Amino acid sequence: MLKDFEPKKHEDKQAIAVQLKELRARLLAQQQLLIKAKLPVIVLIEGWAAAGKGSLIKELISEIDPRFYQTVSPVITPESEERYPFLYQYNKALPENGKITFLDSGWMESVVQKFLKHEITKEEYHRRIRQVNEFERQLRDGGYLVLKIFLHIEKKEQFNRLQALAEAPETEWRVNGNDLWQHKEYKRFLQAYDEFMSKTNSTIKWHILDGSKRKLAVHDAMDLLVMKISHGLENGRFIGEPFEEKFPLIEMPALSEVDLSPTIDDEEYKKELKKLQTRLTELHNIIYRKKIPVILCYEGWDAAGKGGNIRRVAYPLDPRGFDVHPIASPLPHELNRHFLWRFWTRLPKTGHICIFDRTWYGRVMVERLEGFCGEHDWKRAYNEINEFERMLTDWGAVVLKFWIHIDQDTQLARFTERQNTPEKQWKITDEDWRNREKWDMYEVAVDEMLEKTSTRNAPWYIIESNDKKYARIKTLKIIVKALEKACDKHFKKMME
Amino acid sequence: MLKDFEPKKHEDKQAIAVQLKELRARLLAQQQLLIKAKLPVIVLIEGWAAAGKGSLIKELISEIDPRFYQTVSPVITPESEERYPFLYQYNKALPENGKITFLDSGWMESVVQKFLKHEITKEEYHRRIRQVNEFERQLRDGGYLVLKIFLHIEKKEQFNRLQALAEAPETEWRVNGNDLWQHKEYKRFLQAYDEFMSKTNSTIKWHILDGSKRKLAVHDAMDLLVMKISHGLENGRFIGEPFEEKFPLIEMPALSEVDLSPTIDDEEYKKELKKLQTRLTELHNIIYRKKIPVILCYEGWDAAGKGGNIRRVAYPLDPRGFDVHPIASPLPHELNRHFLWRFWTRLPKTGHICIFDRTWYGRVMVERLEGFCGEHDWKRAYNEINEFERMLTDWGAVVLKFWIHIDQDTQLARFTERQNTPEKQWKITDEDWRNREKWDMYEVAVDEMLEKTSTRNAPWYIIESNDKKYARIKTLKIIVKALEKACDKHFKKMME
Predict the structure, then answer these.
(1) ipTM for the complex?
(2) Do B318 and A289 touch (CB under 8 A)?
(3) pLDDT per 10-residue tile (average), chain A, 496 residues
(4) For B343-439, where are the E strands, in sequence order?
(5) Chain A residue with the nearest C-alpha to that of B64
(6) pLDDT of residue A74
(7) pLDDT mean by block of 10 residues, chain B; 496 residues
(8) What Å distances lie between residue B81 and A37, A448, B340, CA to CA?
(9) What is the pLDDT of residue B379?
(10) Which of A4, A344, B333, B433 has its CA 20 to 30 A from that of B224?
(11) CA separation (Å) from A137 to A241, B30, B168, B342, B388?
């Protein structure tokens, strides 16, 4: 890749200036077409320190209406990076449909820098490369136009530029220790950039541009961008094919096979509840200190008892360390982004617990059944979700998923009770009755979901909830056990 | 206040337990009514370290459906506090209509702690108290139900609790240096809390509860909350009266008096543009290092040339240090909060520039004229906006507001040109034509806005834009001059 890069020898400055003007006009015109076609664009500019990444972005955006783009300069700081998964900030920066995000360095710089600084292990390095490939594929499959540019300069050129910056009083502050370190380690960086690019060059190709010729680099970047958009406009929104990677799955029973008869008597319930909640309080303290993130996912039939179950889990937790995210229909700005975006942006910090009251599985249930997304979209989602959750557990998160299960008779009884109890009427809507009619369709979808997404790292648990109290105790037990295991594992890992 | 606090002597534990149960049931029922009445609630729990703030919140939320509340534990860290205005994180935490935010300590603790640590001057301390009063009044006037509780314990009790926490291995980590310091300085804190509460007790009253009796404190807090909500539900959403504080205003001409004939010739334009943009690049570097936040506000007639003007200002800026926020109609979750919320959450960090393409002045223009808010709301807004902007400039921000001005003939000419030029047609909509018909109404509103909100600290500039190039140069000159002044002032302040 980088080692074989041959800069263009000739540079016809006049021709470039003329073409650049034309390209700018085209980009300006494309803006409106992007909005109409609802195509989102991501432009990632990586490259050497002092190669001119910022200036390049400045030129690319100079003619575009500020309403249609954002520029993002990710920082590698403890707060933004260390307490969230590696790809968190890049996911957060995803543009809405019709808009463009320009990234002034991104996931490549982060991985390479941390690896060369020995802040991540070789194993983690390879894991991140895999995650980057998954991320880029998910973006492409979700209809994002992604352009990746590496701005290259030779060591000598970098020296001259850093010197010029460092010796002028008004720019001196711009040269930081990282830049100088990179320059000293130019060869190692070259090697590492090269390797990173080679390993992330399949779904979305890298483009290496010569940073030493500023005008030419602007021209070439603009040309690539205009071509990319033009291609996207002609072909329409890309929709990825469904595919199935082999994830280690846990075999799940069909819902119809689940025995819903288990109950618990009141005395036993009270005793167990108290014991488990006390233990959960202790464990919350420990995971907070060990900085283990915990993600609890609730799905289930209407009136299955999700709300009451969540309350029993939340009650013993320190309010400073947990959040409950009720998930309703997406808002316009959420609908205009990758379907996982609104979950990425709600992830907990390390050491925090977050409870999702309904989740990203809406994709393969309501969105599938109501036609809110295409067939390819929901079929592809099983794999996308498995990748998403693996990324969470690789990050160190405990991910537990509960299907709160009841049978149709129990639902009917609860619906009827809600209807007849004034203070519960708000809980029941016409939509609930309509959904109830689609029970069989939903059951097919849920069975398929449980079958395809109960991975070893992020398993599903079917919670028999005809007896709500039984369901609460079972859920609490699963959580307590999983947190104990996580704390234990965490200690073992530290002792290695 | 705190000094005269007399704890209740008798505590009928059984009666309290019974009442508490009733209160919980009432709160649960109120939840639905809050949603229907679209009433937002803020519960601020302040108090001594180890007084049991977290546990109190835990009890308050234990029966509420997690979909209807959030708990927030503000932290006083450089990132969240120092690089944003003091009230930023509390504004960010505002609940949506119908929901409740519980704050585990908030603006009181922040002000008192920073003051006692000498991290803010006496002057700044008083300024923050004023800002708190303004903030609370704006919340109340905007229909928020605000409950402020101080959880009190005696010094001896605090000692016992801190000791118990510190000596148990699993809770030891919870006692931090701040807590110990507060305990040592108990008397000074008592004095400071007392003063703070006395000075912020007019719009929204403080309630002091005895933290040493846990059950009683929960009961009393729950009782206060239920009463507050009950009162709110009975009386409906509160709408504050308009009022006018005296702000030092700059006299503005009526729009009809503005001479729109100034022009600039092409050669002069190019020369000036280059000079000013070069200077702006330098100044952006300086304000970035000096950490001066800059907020540029654009308002103006349709087709007045805002977009092109903004582009000329943005072009010389480093993309890493600025953002453009195009402001369209509020999204549902924005509409469901205080009208300034979506601007609070978009404020720049210190050292960054942000450009608002349309602003919070929509309140006194489109919202006023289209009836999107009540008469009291927009009449009150002049003052609320002046307070908001004073808070920004007190924080150290440069706030400049531009009214991009043209006459009706020029607008017609530009509309017609847009209509007749295929690549510009997207810029013109039926709504633009409809708005044009309301020119006279808008002119009245704009005149009133300019008259009432051109404060010395955040002045309006009318930019004559019949000649767009003239307008750009004038805007750039104003920005350059203001930034130079700010850098200069910043240096002088440091030298004091």
Answers:
(1) 0.79
(2) no
(3) 82 90 93 94 97 93 86 73 88 96 95 94 96 97 97 96 90 87 96 97 96 94 97 93 90 97 97 97 93 97 95 90 92 94 96 96 96 96 97 96 98 94 85 94 97 97 98 98 92 71
(4) 353-357, 398-405
(5) A311
(6) 81
(7) 82 90 93 94 97 93 87 74 88 96 95 94 96 97 97 96 90 87 96 97 96 94 97 93 90 97 97 97 93 97 95 90 92 94 96 96 96 96 97 96 98 94 84 93 97 97 98 98 92 71
(8) 41, 47, 19
(9) 97
(10) B333
(11) 11, 47, 50, 33, 44
Q: Which pLDDT score is estimated for B88? A: 94
Work out whether the CA dihedral B215, B217, B219, B221 comes out positive or negative: negative
H or E element that contains A410:
helix A408-420
Q: Is A346 an interface residue toward B (CB < 8 Å)?
A: no
- Provide the shortest C-alpha distance from residue A332 to chain B (in Å): 8
Token pair for B32: 């639905």
Residue of chain B whose alpha carbon sits nearest to that of A334: B331
CA distances from B1 to B191, B198, B476 (A): 10, 6, 52
Q: What is the largest CA-CA distance in chain B?
A: 87
Predicted pLDDT of residue B79 = 63
How many Cβ atoms from other residues are within 10 Å of residue B301's Cβ?
A: 25
Q: Is A357 helix (H, G, I), strand (E, B) or coil?
A: strand
Taking contacts as CB-CB distances below 8 angstroms, the residues of chain A near B308 are: none
Q: Is A239 on the interface with B (CB under 8 A)?
A: no
CA distances, B137 to each of B83, B203, B239 (Å):
25, 6, 11
Paired residues of B464 in beta bridges: B405
Q: How far is B195 from chain A (nearest CA, A)?
A: 27
Instruction: Give the Cα separation of B458 and B249 in Å (integer).
Output: 9
Q: Give the number of beta-carbon pairs within 8 Å between A and B.
A: 99
Residue B58: closest C-alpha in chain A: A319
d(CA B355, CA A61): 15
Q: What is the 3-class SS of B350-370, one letter each residue?
A: CCCEEEEECCHHHHHCHHHHC
A57 reaches B (C-beta below 8 A):
yes
**Which candidate from A58, A170, A318 shows the least CB-CB separation from B319?**
A58
Q: Is A332 on the interface with B (CB under 8 A)?
A: yes
Query: pLDDT value at position B74?
Result: 81
Q: If you average pLDDT over every residue of chain B, what do you get?
A: 93
Q: Tell whether the torsion through CA atoms of A161, A162, A165 and A167 is positive or negative.
A: negative
Q: Which residues of B touch A66 (CB under 8 A)?
A: 307, 310-311, 314, 324, 326, 355, 357
- Chain A residues in contact with B355 (beta carbon < 8 A): 66
CA A166 to chain centre: 38
The nearest CA of chain A is from the CA of B315 a distance in Å of 6
Look at the pTM and tell me if it is higher than 0.90: no
Using the Cβ of A5 and the Cβ atoms of chain B, whether some distance falls under 8 Å is answered with no
Chain B residues within 8 A of A289 when measuring between CB atoms: 173
Total number of residues shown for chain B: 496
d(CA B234, CA B242): 23
Q: Which domains does chain A have, with CATH numbers?
A: 13-235 (3.40.50.300), 255-495 (3.40.50.300)
Q: Is the dihedral of CA B311, B314, B318, B323 positive or negative?
A: negative
Q: Check: CB of residue B193 under 8 Å from CB of residue B2.
A: yes
B454, two tokens: 């051109």
Cβ separation B289–A173 shorter than 8 A: yes
pLDDT at A8: 81
Strands B69-72 and B41-47, sheet pairing: unpaired
Test A326 with B66 for CB contact under 8 angstroms: yes
